[in-house]
Amino acid sequence: MTTIRTGVALLAVAMLSACDSSNDSGPPLVAETFRNPPEVRSAGGELRTLLNVATGPVQVGGQTVTTTVYNGMYIPPVLRLRPGDTLFLDIDNRSSDPTNLHLHGLNVSPRINSDATVGDNIFVSVDPANRLSYRIAIPSTHNPGLYWYHTHLHMLAQRQVMGGLSGGLIIDGILDPLPQLQGLVERVMLLKDIQVTAQGTVPDDISPSSPSIRMVNGQVNPTLSIRPGETQFFRIANIGSDVYYRLRLDGHVFHEIARDGNRATQLTTRQEILIPPSSRAEVLVQAASPGSFALRAQAFNTGPAGDSYDATIIATLIAQGPPVTPITLPSVLPAVEDFRTLPIARQRTITFTESSDGNTFYIDSGNGAKQFDANVIDSTIVQGTVEEWTILNATQELHTFHIHQTDFQVTEINGVAQPFLGHQDNVNLPYQGQETPAPGQVKVIIDFRNPIIVGKFVYHCHILEHEDGGMMAVAEVVPPPTLAPLTMAGRFMKVMNQVVGPSDAERAARAEETLKAVQAGSYCRTEPAKPRVRVTRADRLAQSAPLQRPQLDRGNEGGAVAVR
Amino acid sequence: MTSPSHQDRNDRRTLLLAIIAAGVVPGRTAAAHTLEPAPINGFELPEPKALQVASLHTHTGAPFSLRDLGGRWSLVFFGFTNCPDVCPTTLADLRRVRAAIGNANEAVPNRVLFVTIDPARDTDARLAEYVARFGPGVTAINGSASAIKVFADQFRVKYEIAANGKATKGGYLFDHTASVSLVGPDARLHAIFTLPLRVTAVADDVLRIHAKHRAGICPSISGRNETLSCTARTV
Questions:
Q1: Using one digit for the tens of pLDDT, what is the confidence trace for A342-355?
Q2: Does the pLDDT value for residue B30 go beyond 60?
């Protein structure tokens, strides 16, 4: 299926090239098919919106797929806000499965608010036929950039995200300090892939290596128009469930200006950019001479025990029309704090492991390898501190490390010191044997100083097959002993809310919704996790030499969650 | 989505909005936007929720009414005596929470209520033996399956026999909501503590909520006690 689509795309590109040379007096402009996603924008300091979660037929990649999406759209609206805004978002779950929401990359509170709205809390669960109100206060100091939102319900996340429950989120202002970059054409490019069964549904048991339709904003190989010499701002997010994208744009380079919603210390010119699941790269592209240029997702393999993705063209850039004089790209970007200058309060070692059959996944946070258990705190961190984590990948496939509510700085990969380019919330973990016989190693410095992130949240592999399989752990940021639990200003605002906020009936209804979601999120099941049958992967492992996995041969490899 | 209605605002709200608009309160008009998250791992209800009790009794056989539910702070956990881990672990933690509360303030009466979700197997005698393992101050609540369900529904607690439970040695297990509910002396639901329980933090939260309750819910502002919407309730 993928091969056919790629072929059709290449044919289209060839036809476009033919058009370019058909008229010496100036070829007719090729119509652009690329569309930015729909968006909703904040006004007056707030954005109020509703996401209906429902299952139904949607058009995806040229075919009808019955799947669960937001607001009937495979690509739901981009939520566009500014620092200091408040997002009021309701989830209305009309599907047959529970769901919830995560604001990926935002440095916001993970708690439940004192008005019974919910912050960026993934421990709640919105059951079918229920509704939940989120209120996300975005600090005025928040980094502008590209973020995203998605369902985060453990054991359902992979299928729900692949099926469509993810969208973009932008905090405006990332180019504001750079006058020469004002007015650029902005391309929001949300990379998303879907696997479709013969029945027109998303498979119940997804194997990431199976053929999938890889799209930009739900479009297969759309064309983007650019004038020769023109600079455009590509904001690329991988909002799919499992797939890595290693992107190359024929005849061009990427000038990366931000990663994961964090403006970099400098513009970095790259021939290709690696965008692991959940990662975002914001780049400047300056068009070359007229012509058609494929934006390629190159073939990618995540390791001997991992998955393989064929090469494909995900979009085509058409440089056409009157040329413009290229702008001078900024050589200096605003300074970014170097976490290496901060005192390290604590060092930890976090190890990603998996079972010998490659189907059950663990994180060892220093107390043994374990699967995700929402009722166990794996790492307790004192707010106000900065920590250095050494993250080990003791498996033979790639993983991605992501932590909620904050950002980190990568300082070392496999023992090699990394240049300081900025902060991120996601990093690829090289696998054991990829470069050295030892486990893959990434050192990061994580910022836990922000007082609003006090509370419980998670860190995990963002290949959602692995997260659903158990590769997730709980962090709790606790206030330092001297911090008052609620400031006088907070108490005052609480009273004001009682006075000027919603009516008693509305408050009571909202509290009841949140009570249901909190209790649903506390529901403990005894049944084992669904077995993950991945024949091709098992076959590969069976053919490879036995691996050294000293802590994996435990009694719970069947994938059982804690028995209650 | 939920959109605040202005029709049912009372005059007091209107007055205060006018004060805000006049610049007495700096910042945007939407004062609620800067609300801080509740300082709790779990959910503190903005307004305590009224509960009903019917046809329940304690492990001693004594009737358990709404009046019995009130009168002190109750840390309520729904479980079953055949529960292999989360029930005994949580009850052990709650014993330590009670000790921490007592150490901080002996004048905060409290107890643990263990509500069985398995009345078919959890007899009063079995419950009496079970709760005795977790020290004094633990009362088991029993009743018919339907009466317990009506009580649990108010907490939004769910449970059902686990699909694979019949294969276990003890007969069957339950899938169930595993959190701790805080019911006040007013017999209202004040908060939900999610697991794992941090003993000191939970004790601190109980003491804080107790102080708030004693003060008539509203905090002190600028050195004087506001009484707006304060509704100190007792049963």
A1: 999 999 999 999 99
A2: no
Which of B30, B34, B208 lies at the smallest CB-CB distance from A485?
B208
Question: What's the pLDDT band for A506 if we cut at 50, 70, 90?
Answer: confident
Task: Pick the residue of B33, B153, B159 with the most A CBs within 10 A to test the interface with A by mutation.
Answer: B33
Amino acid at A183: G
Q: Count the Cβ atoms, other than its own, within 10 Å of residue A198.
A: 5
Nearest to A502 among B4, B85, B156 (CB): B4
Q: What is the DSSP string of A276-336?
A: -TT-EEEEEEE--SSEEEEEEE--EE--TTS-EE--EEEEEEEE-SS--PPPPPPS-----
A377 touches chain B (CB under 8 A): yes
ipTM of predicted assembly, 2 dp: 0.82
Describe chain A by its helix, strand, coil percentages, rounded to 5.
15, 40, 45
Please state which of the ranges A396-405, A491-500, B69-78 shows the lowest mean pLDDT: A491-500
A487, A490, B45 from B37: Cα distances, Å: 11, 9, 12
The residue that leads in pLDDT, A22 or B169, is B169
Asked if B66 and A545 count as a contact pair (C-beta separation under 8 A), the reply is no
How many angstroms separate the CA of residue B79 from the nearest CA in chain A? 9
Angle, in degrees to the nearest 10, between helices B11-21 and A488-500:
130
Give the gap in angstroms from C-alpha A55 to the nearest C-alpha of chain B: 19
A45 neighbourhood in chain B, CB within 8 Å: 28, 30, 33
Counting one residue from chain A and one from chain B, the pairs whose CB atoms sit within 8 A come to: 220
Dihedral of alpha carbons A406, A103, B178, B174, sign:
negative
CB A507 within 8 A of CB A116: yes
> How many Cα atoms are found within 13 Å in the side-chain-facing hemisphere of A30?
28
SS (H, E, C) A395-444: CCCCEEEEECCCCEEEEEECCEECCCCCCECEEEECCCCCCCCCCEEEEE
Match 């797929």 to its residue by tokens: A65
pLDDT band, residue A13 (cuts 50/70/90)? very low
User: Which residue, among A526, A527, A556, would best test binding to B if mutated, counting the most B CBs under 10 Å from its CB?
Assistant: A526
Mutate to test the interface with A, among B36, B51, B218, B220 (most CBs of A within 10 A): B36
Is the pLDDT confidence value at B190 over 50? Answer: yes
More confident residue, A394 or A488: A394
- Pairwise CB contact (< 8 Å): A503 & B164: no
Q: What is the mean pLDDT of residues A326-333?
A: 93
Chain mean pLDDT for chain B: 80
Determine the residue type at A21. S
Residue contact A478–B201, C-beta within 8 A: yes
Share of chain A above pLDDT 70, in %: 85
CB nearest to B192's CB, from A137, A519, A563: A519
Measured in angstroms, the CA of A330 and the nearest CA of chain B are apart by 35
Average pLDDT, chain A: 88
CA-wise closest residue to A439 among A303, A538, A309, A300: A303
